[in-house]
């Protein structure tokens, strides 16, 4: 019997591998490009979010440090009698406190502290420890740029620093004349025989500070007790 030759042309045609068309390649490239753009935008959003959070945390730390230092100075404020003048003075975007300095192994001293807005920064100026009222007066007359004063910037980007003080039985005021009037009244009250041995009351029992900054929608306001 004569053998019949089988053709494998069809078999070879069925097993031939088919490649990607140009259109399919373009679609794949477009999909990968979209995925890359979305990934980049997501990463950029995460980085920006982290930067925003870090900046906000740093701002909160600076603000907390500023108000904590003010609270400490107000709490350590001397009396008007010890300072030989109003222990707390305000005006022209500044706050001045005559406070006590208490270090182990040394006698109590006085110190003049000033918070002042200068070139968009709140700067804390502090005199060296002072032994008596006379040294306090000399320190005040010499200014805070000489005589061993320290200057520490506490907060930048500040647009305003507003202060007012609380006088018992009279309320809040921004006028130092009200403070001086209260000191005179307290001094006159001590001339009454029944109150002759009583200590001179504080003319100011509270301080309110409002800080306005470029990154704040509204000023931040804090109230500090004096000598507490």
Automatic annotation (TrEMBL):
Biological processes annotated in GO: protein secretion by the type II secretion system
UniProtKB keywords: Cell inner membrane, Cell membrane, Membrane, Methylation, Transmembrane, Transmembrane helix
UniProt xrefs under Pfam families: N_methyl (PF07963)
Keyword Protein biosynthesis attached: no
Location relative to the cell: Cell inner membrane
Protein name: General secretory pathway protein J
PROSITE patterns: PROKAR_NTER_METHYL
Entry GO CC: plasma membrane
Primary residence: membrane
Transmembrane segments: 20-40
Coiled coil (UniProt feature): none
Membrane topology value: Single-pass membrane protein
Organism: Caballeronia ptereochthonis
Upper classification of the organism: Bacteria, Pseudomonadati, Pseudomonadota, Betaproteobacteria, Burkholderiales
